[in-house]
Amino acid sequence: MRFLIKEAYAKKVSEKLSVKDKKLIQLLIQDARTPITQLAKKVSISKSAVIQKISSLKKRGILMEPILYSKIKTHETSFYVFDILTQIGMGNKKITEELLEIEEIVVVLWYNGNYNLLLAFNTNDPSEIIEKIEKVIEIKKLRIRKVIDNWFHPPYLFKEISDKKVEFKRVNLKIDEIDKKILRVLEDNPLASFVEISTKTRLAAQTIKKHLNYLEKSGIIIAYHFFPEVWLCGRNLISINLSVKGKKEIEKLVKYLLTISEVGNIWEFDDEWNINVVLWVKEQLEVNKIINHITSNFKILEYDISVLAAMVGK
Questions:
Q1: Reported pTM
Q2: Which of 38, 89, 90, 301 is deepest in the core (most CB within 10 A)?
């Protein structure tokens, strides 16, 4: 998995957005590949105005990069998360740049929490990555977790567009070499046209259409998501790690989380800290309400909460 995110740092000031800006952003959050014609109809502006608005939102830093979310198990290498406690005040650009030079790392996230640094990466040998990281920073505490499943609910930032309903399901992963070729192109560019996919894979358009339809309907491709700049949209990004008792309880919890408008990504790990959920919220009160419901209605052994301070992807 790749997070094609430019650097972003916590801000207290949000951008002023028109109703039509909000509609467009929310639609692109829900599906980055929505055709311009459909966007124009839903926002009630011309196609040229849609193109101009998207360009303007990118220049203002409000719309960042599109991301392809697909089922983790489709990847040839495992996807790991390292939660790291390191020295206070090390969330700076120099350290981040050095960490991103490590080939396997795909995103660097700095948090205010029990662990102040999160690194996500693709590898089949996490011990090798630890050695590389220790050349850059001192690790005081480390939690290693391998992702075994993932879900996504498009964060509901603007009520001008209806929330997108997402159903829970475990996906039966069956992909062939053609599927893999298409997924690789879309990871590099989630907005790739059929012509671009065909050029890079040397597959016929009809073959691409057939396989892409399968990947989407089967749930292997979860979403094409335009990532908005969290703070410029007047939100904070909150990470909640949970230790949930039992597989059935995990599934019940994930089903519930997918109904919450503030929820974005949900990750399942092969660790005692087996669930992570990311919330996009305006106020701490929203987080408290969700946590209170979860701890009252599900078998939660422990939980911790972190607030995102900076993110840089590649």
A1: 0.93
A2: 90
CA distance 88 to 95: 13
User: What SS3 string covers the chain?
Assistant: CCCCCCCEECCCCCCCCCHHHHHHHHHHHHCCCCCHHHHHHHHCCCHHHHHHHHHHHHHCCCEEEEEEEECHHHCCCCEEEEEEECCCCCCCHHHHHHHHCCCCEEEEEEEECCCCEEEEEECCCHHHHHHHHHCCCCCCEEEEEEEEEEEECCCCCCCCCCCCCCCCCCCCCCCCHHHHHHHHHHHHCCCCCHHHHHHHHCCCHHHHHHHHHHHHHHCCEEEEEEEECCCCCCCEEEEEEEEECCHHHHHHHHHHHCCCCCEEEEEEECCCCCEEEEEEECCHHHHHHHHHHHHHHCCEEEEEEEEEEEEEEC
Which amino acid makes up residue 296?
S
Instruction: Give me the amino acid identity at 142.
Output: L
Please tell me the distance from the alpha carbon of residue 62 to that of residue 302, in angstroms, as a whole number: 35
Strands 117-122 and 79-85: antiparallel
pLDDT tens column, 71-105: 988 878 899 999 999 986 655 788 999 999 999 99
Exposed (0-12), middle (13-18) or buried (19+): which is 283, by Cβ within 10 Å?
A: exposed
Q: Is 20 left (phi over 0), alpha (psi -120 to 50) or beta?
A: alpha
Model confidence pLDDT, tens digit, residues 212-264: 999 999 999 999 999 999 999 999 999 999 999 999 999 999 999 999 999 99
The answer to whether 209 and 197 are in contact (CB under 8 A) is no
Which residue carries 């998360």 as its tokens?
A: 81
